[in-house]
Design brief:
Layout (H helix, E strand, L loop, with lengths): L16 H7 L2 H4 L7 E6 L4 E6 L9 H4 L9 E2 L2 H14 L3 E9 L2 E11 L9 E8 L2 H6 L11 H14 L4 H16 L3 E7 L5 E9 L10 E3 L4 H6 L6 E4 L10 E9 L2 E10 L8 H67 L6 H33 L7 E4 H18 L3 E5 L8 E4 L1 H17 L5 E9 L3 E3 L2 E3 L2 E8 L21 H7 L5 H11 L4 E4 L7 E11 L18
Parallel strand pairs: 14-16
Antiparallel strand pairs: 1-2, 1-6, 3-4, 4-5, 5-6, 7-8, 7-12, 8-9, 10-11, 11-12, 13-15, 15-21, 16-19, 17-18, 19-21, 20-21
Helix pairs in contact: 6-7, 6-9, 7-9, 9-10, 10-14, 11-12, 12-14
């Protein structure tokens, strides 16, 4: 038996480990291990034994090596790095794999080595067992270990080719797919993934995948960033994360390598390599390849994301320009209509076309109505312009709800009655007045806008205006208020389809141009109302079950103070202010 493999051989009868190693016959013993190169060394770099199958081919005498030091015969080109590696192996008692270039009498010999500590029964290890083999030219090209000289081989060419492909496109999906396909095919992994993480790094979305049969696809999966320790680690550090799964997960991964992609020190994705059919040792060359590629991919992702954002911004600008053009065309028509009415009726009077004073008065009343309509249109446009320019300053203070509702009733009830629509107002049941915190004139404008729309788009049924008190505390203007009032305007009108509701509050957007033309108006009422309510610390919401099913618009206003509520309310607390 090889004395080095006999755990009871060191020390024996007072004989030192070095003496035992020196007494061994390496040529006869080491060759049975099946390794091409085997030698032992102590921490000072002295060769204690030496065996290499091809020693004679390179003019190396084994007897010459044994007993010599690293600096004297077979010497690592980077001797300090080699000594550091040996020291680390002895201290940690953990083997290390490396590629190392040795020099012998003018020859350079590149070896792949595994350096292992020789563990004595007692005390610290003092020697290492080194096993390895000579690398071929092709294998040298594939190595990225700093102990070997740079060599522009297939991996470097692969990196260059992949980077070139990625730089040719600004499409994110293409970048992700080319990345996984290139790495997966080059390294022959079971699965390669590109993952995007949300800004808070809670979720990881699998964007592209290279997957060999028969392993399960992970494409489209959303993974919890905290589901596995290695995901958390990968999201917290810049260095690659290597994992050996002792227990297979649901995706059968046994060996995992995760590398982050960065742009300007900001993580924007992950590249994950998985070996599912066996446990795999990720070589330094493979790790460096993936790291260098991750740098390229991180930059490509950032550029593609920026391009996409610019593209979307351009489309949004073009859409805004189109909507503004449509809005101006529609608004011009709306302004022209009442203006033509004013001019027309005044012209009839000037030309003496009125047969009697009563008809002349009718002409003047129509001209007056048209002028009011024109003024409202202009006010809407001016209000929006002020809001957009940030020049609408609101003086906020106490507003009595009953007074506000009474003014609303006075303005809007006649309009509802002209269309034979019912009109009800349901104030909250309180023992003390309800005092809001807002601007009276702007709150009145909001309610007239909302109720005016309800009347305009309702042909049968009616409108119900209701107010409810909530004790939900809110903060606005660095003040805390004890609650809010939620005011609702519900109608039985034409309604709005579900897919169109999201656009209702966008400026310059009209849900249906044909409706706007048919019913009149600028289509700015909701947009302006939302801006005004926001400025007063509330919010506006719109609800409709669909076309023909009516609509409900609600908005909230802070309460200046909480009123005293009635302990018992009537079964039907709605009432008609005009009754």
């Amino acid at each position: 038996m090889n004395p080095l493999l006999d755990v009871g051989a060191f020390p024996r009868q007072g004989m030192s480990m070095k003496a035992e190693l020196a007494k061994s016959k390496p040529n006869n013993d080491w060759q049975h291990l099946g390794a091409e190169l085997v030698f032992t060394q102590d921490s000072s770099g002295k060769y204690l034994s030496f065996y290499w199958q091809a020693a004679s081919d390179y003019g190396i005498g084994e007897e010459e090596i044994v007993g010599s030091y690293l600096e004297e015969t077979l010497t690592p080109v980077r001797i300090k790095a080699y000594y550091e590696r040996v020291r680390r192996v002895l201290e940690r008692r953990v083997p290390e794999q490396c590629h190392c270039l040795f020099r012998y009498r003018g020859q350079t010999l590149p070896f792949e080595l595994v350096i292992s500590p020789i563990l004595p029964k007692e005390g610290k290890p003092q020697a290492v067992l080194v096993m390895g083999r000579l690398l071929s030219e092709t294998e040298i090209a594939l190595t990225a270990n700093t102990d070997l000289p740079p060599h522009p081989g297939p991996y470097q060419k692969l990196l260059t080719n992949i980077a070139r492909k990625i730089r040719r496109t600004l499409d994110l999906a293409t970048i992700w797919k080319q990345t996984v396909d290139s790495i997966g095919e080059a390294l022959q992994v079971s699965r390669c993934l590109t993952l995007a993480c949300d800004p808070k790094q809670r979720y990881l979305d699998v964007k592209a995948e290279y997957c060999q049969q028969p392993f399960k696809s992970m494409l489209g999966y959303r993974l919890d960033g905290k589901s596995e320790a290695y995901w958390q680690q990968a999201l917290c550090q810049r260095e690659p994360v290597i994992v050996e799964q002792l227990v297979e997960d649901r995706f059968q991964a046994k060996s995992i390598l995760v590398v982050s992609t960065f742009y300007q020190n900001q993580r924007n994705g992950l590249i994950c390599l998985q070996q599912c059919d066996r446990h795999r040792y990720w070589t330094p060359a493979e790790i460096e390849l993936v790291q260098e590629l991750a740098d390229q991919v991180g930059t490509a992702i950032a550029h593609a994301t920026l391009y996409k954002e610019l593209e979307q911004a351009t489309l949004a600008a073009e859409e805004a320009s189109r909507l503004k053009s449509e809005f101006l065309a529609s608004t011009t028509h709306e302004l022209r209509t009442p203006l033509n009415g004013i001019i027309g009726f005044l012209k009839l009077i000037l030309d003496g076309m009125a047969d009697d004073p009563e008809e002349q008065r009718e002409f003047l009343e129509e001209a007056y109505k048209s002028s009011l309509h024109l003024l409202n249109l202009i006010n809407d446009i001016l209000d929006l312009a002020k809001i957009e320019a940030g020049k609408m300053d609101l003086e906020l203070g106490a507003v009595e709800l009953d007074e506000l509702l009474q003014s609303v009733d006075n303005f809007t009830r006649p309009l509802a009655q002209q269309k034979n629509l019912s009109f009800k107002i349901k104030p909250p049941q309180t023992l003390t007045p309800v005092i809001l915190y807002g601007n009276y004139q702007r709150l009145l404008q909001v309610m007239l806008n909302l109720i005016g729309n309800a009347i305009k788009f309702t042909h049968e049924g009616g409108i119900v205006v209701s107010a409810e008190i909530s004790k939900k505390k809110v903060k606005h203007d660095n003040q805390e208020f004890p609650g809010i009032v939620k005011i609702s305007v519900a109608d039985t009108g034409i309604g709005v389809s579900l897919e169109k509701q999201a656009k209702l509050f966008e400026k310059f957007v009209q849900v249906d141009g044909s409706l706007t033309k048919a019913y009149g108006g600028t289509g700015l009422g909701l947009a302006i109302s939302q801006k005004l309510v926001d400025a007063m610390g509330g919010q506006v919401d719109f609800y409709s079950m669909g076309e023909g099913l009516g609509s409900t618009v609600t908005f909230t206003v802070p309460l200046n103070h909480m009123p005293v509520m009635k302990s018992v309310q009537s079964i039907d607390d709605s009432f008609d202010l005009a009754s």
